[in-house]
Each structure stands twice: as C-alpha cells, then as structure tokens.
Amino acid sequence: MRYLKNEMLCGIRIVAMVSMILLGAAAVTCADGPVLIIFSPGTTIQSSQVNQNFSALLNALPGFKWVMGANNFSFTTDWQTVAQISVTAPADGNFLIFVNTQVSFNLQPNGGNMVTFGISTSPSINNLVAPGQFGVNFVAPCTSCGPALSVPANIVGTASASNGVTATFYLLAKKEQNTTDIITLASASMFTVFLPKQW
Predict the structure, then answer these.
(1) Would you say the pTM of this structure is higher than 0.70?
(2) Which domains does the chain have, with CATH numbers?
(3) What is the distance between the alpha carbons of residues 197 and 15, in angstroms, rounded to a whole number?
(4) Which site from 73, 128, 146, 195 is most exposed, i.e. has the minimal number of CB atoms within 10 Å?
C-alpha cells in the first residue's frame, strides 16, 4: 500500500509540472469546458466541486491516462510485459510515457544482479520508443544480507502520435543474470500525456 501511495504521489507531481508547462493551452481548453473553482481557507468543499476541477484538468490534458501494472512480479531472464496502456491521440503530436517502479532485491551474500526495462509499442523489445532500455543495477553490500531492499526506477519515453489513432505502449522487463537472487517488482505504474504538434 505504501508503494501505491508513492506511485500516485509521484504521478500527481509530474502531472502538476506538465500542467504548468501547458498552462496556456489549459486555459483555452478550460474556458470551453468546466470552470475551475478556487477554494478559500475555511470554506466547505463539496465533492461535486472537486470532481468538476478534476474534469477540467483532464479536459486540459487530452491523452492523459494512468494504469497500474503487475505487483509482486518475479523477473526472469526473458523479456516479459509488466504493464500496458492504450491511449487515443486527439490530434497530431507526441505522447510522453511515464513509468514509475519499485524493484525489490533480495540478494545472496555478495551477490548482484541487474533489471532492465524498456517501453515498447509492441510486446517485442524490437520496437522500443526513445530513449531505449533502462537498467537498475544493485550489488549486495555485505556478506550476510538481511531483508530485501527496494530500489525505485523511473523512466520517461516519447513517441509520435497521429490524430485519432490509438497507441498501445508496453513496459517490458527482465533480469540480466539467472542467479538464485530473488528480484521482484513491488509496484509499477504507467501514464501518458499528450503534447500537440506545435509543442
């Protein structure tokens, strides 16, 4: 549950940054849809008002979508799909694909291993989006290691988007060495943000 909260908070922070970057476009979109409600200290907030603000935000960020991936996923030396997300482009432009993960390493004494991730447009590693593969490496710092250690891994990919076309992105992962080390994916999430062509 702690990992889920961290993933959501990280996603909210990134969305907030993207919102600030797209402030000009967001203002135009919001003007045609629900109007943002500004709350004052000490006033009572109604759930319908909060929902209206969320609707305005989503309308201002077309192509935004968020999914959770596999939890307690055990890595193998073969590429496997950890999560996938499908989103339809509202116009020509680009997608930003954000990935947040927590990798749990339970290593043998003096052991070490590496987990490699990639964002692809198919379940195959041959169709990676930029910037390509991303590795998380960890070496046991002791001769008698204790509980599993959790290591965060965050990835951002980019891909072109065509008006009205639905794109599916896959988070692929594998461990590099077939050792007795226990390496699992504690949590994973993916979300996309659409950027118009002029950006």
Answers:
(1) no
(2) 2-60 (no CATH), 65-196 (2.60.120.760)
(3) 19
(4) 146
